[in-house]
# Entry
Amino acid sequence: MFKQLITLLMLMMLSGCGYNSLQSSDETINASWAEVLNQYQRRADLIPNLVNVVKGYAAHEKDVLVEVTEARAKVGSIQATPELVNDEQAFKNFIAAQGQMTSAISRLLAVAENYPQLKADGLFRDLQAQLEGTENRITVARNRYIQAVKDYNITVRSFPSNLTAMMFGYKTKPSFTVENEKAISVAPKIEFNTAPNH
# Structure
């Protein structure tokens, strides 16, 4: 009877010290991260079709096509598991690879602007619309993940739940950051290309 009373008392103390909040927040992060990965995978799945359509109209844009293909391969080589959010360096590598993919896709779509026939192709327009929708879903999923990490990290760092976090090995988790804050604070230079379209 005495053991049961102590167990009950300890459970009450743990719930009052943020243990349940830590568990709940950690599960929310895992679910949010799974959605981020799902949307990134959806984007990666669209890339081969997009590259093939562009290749049909702009085969001599080899550098851009290779860059997109290599960026996709790099993204695919990273083991994107739920545990990734607990390894800050692996998380940074994953985010960097996704950033390279975003940059490569932007260059590919910019190349398409020089090819009116490509822009008029129904399959290209469909893939471009799917890609835009996916980018929007990625943004929403990332924002949910960022909020979940923020809530979790507040619990991990706040008293008295920080004591429970230390006792059970809960640590703050990395979140998405802007890769190059200085670069995005500078207004972009706009240059008009006066060369005729191909």
